[in-house]
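Handoff note, outgoing to incoming analyst
You'll be picking up this chain. Sequence as last confirmed:
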Amino acid sequence: MERGGYRGGRAAGRGRGGGGRGDGGGGGRSYGAGGGDRGRGYVGRGSERGGGDLGTRGHSSSGRGGYDRDQQLPQSQWGPPPVQGGRGTQLQQQPRPQVVQQPQQAEVSQSVAGGGGGRGAWGRKLQVSPDTATVPPSAPSTVAVSETARGSEITNPMPSQVASSSDKKVQVVSSSSARKEPMKRPDKGGVVAVRRVNLLVNHFQVNINPQSVIRHYDVEIKGENPTKKVSRFELSMVRDKLFTDNPHEFPFAMTAYDGQKNIFSAAELPTGSYKVDFPKTDETRARSYTFTIKQVNELKLRDLKEYMTGGASSFNPRDVLQGMDVVMKEHPSKCMITVGKSFFTRETERDEDFGFGVAAAKGYRHTLKPTAQGLSLCLDYSVLAFRKSMSVIEYLNLYFGWRGDLRRFRNDRRNVEKELTGLKVTVTHRKNKQKLTIVGLSKEDTKDIKFDMIDQEGNEPPRKTSIVEYFRIKYGRDIVHKDFPCLDLGKNGRQNLVPMEFCVLVEGQIYPKDDLDKDSALWLKKLSLVNPRQRKENILKMIDSKNGPSGGEITGNFGMEVDTNMTRVEGRVLKAPALKLAERGRAVREEPNPRQNNQWNLMRKGVTRGSVIKHWAVLDFTASERNKMPYDFVDNLIKRCWTLGMQLDAPIVYKSSRMDTLSNANALEELLRNVIDEAHRNHGGARPTLILCAMSGRVDGYKTLKWIAETKLGLVTQCFLTGSATRGGDQYRANLALKINAKVGGSNVELMDTFSFFRKDDQVMFIGADVNHPASRDKMSPSIVAVVGTLNWPEANRYAARVIAQPHRKEEIEGFGETCLELVKAHVQATGKRPNKIVIFRDGVSDGQFDMVLNVELLDVKLTFEKNGYNPKITVIVAQKRHQTRFFPATDNDGSDKGNVPSGTVVDTKVIHPFEYDFYLCSHHGGIGTSKPTHYYTLWDELGFTSDQVQKLIFEMCFTFTRCTKPVSLVPPVYYADMVAYRGRMYHEASSREKNIRQPRGASSSLASSFSSLTLDDKAIFKLHKELENVMFFV
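Most recent structure output, in case you need it:
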């Protein structure tokens, strides 16, 4: 079900509904994300995301620490396999240790826990010290390095753990001292392809002067009251004054400031404390600040250059990249509207103005990335809707459509306060341009407001005066709109009333796209999802702009120069796998056609394995609506299911209700229980396998229905919109049938040839994990964890799901090991076999969180498995969609019919990490906008994939997504985990609404602390009913 909203009439304030969550964009999360897997048709355009269901082999280990995956190697519990000549990784700031080849005669004493694959977790690690390994006597400590399970491991043994040169015993190092790092690439990249294409990438090479040094300074600014927090406005003001007054000591053009505590400089700056004084003015008293600056680091660009060429793999480039990033942002931050890490133009073209005080602004977001070709500036185009900078009264007139009749304010007062609260303004009656936040409206109109005016000199007693008189005498300003309330711009509980007409909205305040009316939302989407050619032109225009990241003189002063030409790479197009469908009850082979973007159709074929549904029910919520369910819809759906190879009998229960029942949780639960009772009573104790729910529109009650059915009653529901059913015809019913078949245990599509990497006797399981965080404005809701796992092999297309709530905005998955073990047990129950190989796909983590995935989440999984006597081989792969990399065909012959890169395009050269194991894959066909590839990062590999093998595996998995007849943009375990996590968010919203929990706008972050730990009742909200734990209810 798509999410969205409309403003619902400007005079009536803002409503919600309509809009769209976005099913293009290669992920559908936000506008500007690029085109992708959109479509509805069972002829190859099947809808994917939407969040709901309304509508639609061995390798030698020589030289790289690998091992033969088919060889059973002796090792200690949780230890790595012995390796030959492993490519080590050393700790930062430590001398490079000797690389010692282990002699085959070295004795190893160990204990091996039972389980598939004969290996344990990494809690205990073998460290062999042969005769040839001598420890230099001058070394105060030793760094022992090995590459284990094709993932780097760094250990710091205590002196007592370091063997002498004559000792051949195995030393055991505890897990607390062994931290894992992302593994190195095992080869030079893939070579397999059915064709090769020439591509342009929005990576711009940054040439750096290796002799340059960036000095990092820590800055602390305090006011006269050291305990009082200094605002960001004051921080910038103090820094600017100090640098302006002392240009020789503090040169602007040689420094970059992040607006808080960090200054990066290309020149040496004086350190110490400086007093910065601001004299008294007519508006402000005299103020004094203390500016303290001290140098904390010297960032040498040659270290970064060595890191990118593989000469210093232990060097952590994060500090250097942070400094360079601040430098790159210094110039555009002064010329453009800054929103987080993005920059937008101030100029608005006519077609970008939505006409109600809101306009679209084009901009970009950039990141610096160390790549195989050197340092790259990755820059991508984006669009956001902003409230225009204008007088507050003028904004209200446009927003609510008063057409100049300001008397209509009376009827809209509540909506006005709701719209304005939390927005930032500056005032026109004073020279000070400090940004002030609107906290509300005054209770009285401006003409009726009076207050006690106190003489600051103490020469006269306090006297009562009106705000009208005060502004006339103090500022010489006559208030025109006396019948309007004032804006309260106070803070810390102190009132500060200012007439509306003297307040101007600050630029760069985002207008939520969910609140746009339908036409504006569609137009914003059109501006965002531009075709590849237009997007490429927009990007090149921005990189060449004088306001862009390469504009101005500051980057050159830091020894950096941006090449404004896109990077050229060669992409490899992978062959689509043969698929297994059915025709007249027998399996048939289907070859996806590259000329049709690897899509297939079900016009004359059926699903691989159709389900049998004898007991099901229909709930018609449209009985009293104008837009009723078509009278023959159920009969036609039954016929379509049969032609696809499913057996859908006539429904055993048919009930009519009203749409408003969905908004009453108690009434809705009673209705669903009546359906269960009637089926049980009249049909020999039967329980409905499925409930088909007809709705006339998108309502919040949909979330309540899913929450009650899936957590309280254990019912599988399939909702549909009657309008879409009427318009969609046979194609719509086919899409609905695919979802129904998957939900009740059928199989829509399988690979004709099983995943070739694995052996016949392997039992493999795929696991996907994601965390859904609340919106940034929400300071108290929990984060929702979703973990899914396959229930069949070798088909690997049916999944079980688990939903868990955890503290607000916490990314690390709590109890990940126990959840994975629970899913393994479900797999064993379904197949009768325990997986000996597991591939975990993790979604939603950035590069900086890889350490957490490896050393917290994966360690938790391994230790939990080991406690249960279970030691499968595990590979961990991260899937990233939140990046800015885009590919553009160099010529028309290199692209698809829509101008995007072909489905199955993989890139693993030039724009990837210098030595870690990542690649980009555009598995889907981009029908709308510009395709966004998925960035896959293999962090840990015990299965021994080559680049070609892991790329082939993931691409083939993208054909097994159950809701459409085309390959999808994201590997299914991650895709499903994302859908389940969103479902959990729906549970939370439905339960919160039922409890009447409403978070006040602008609630303080301290409020979240009371929700930092969840009660058992809170967690029960997300607990799936036993009947649905191993069912794909979420598709």
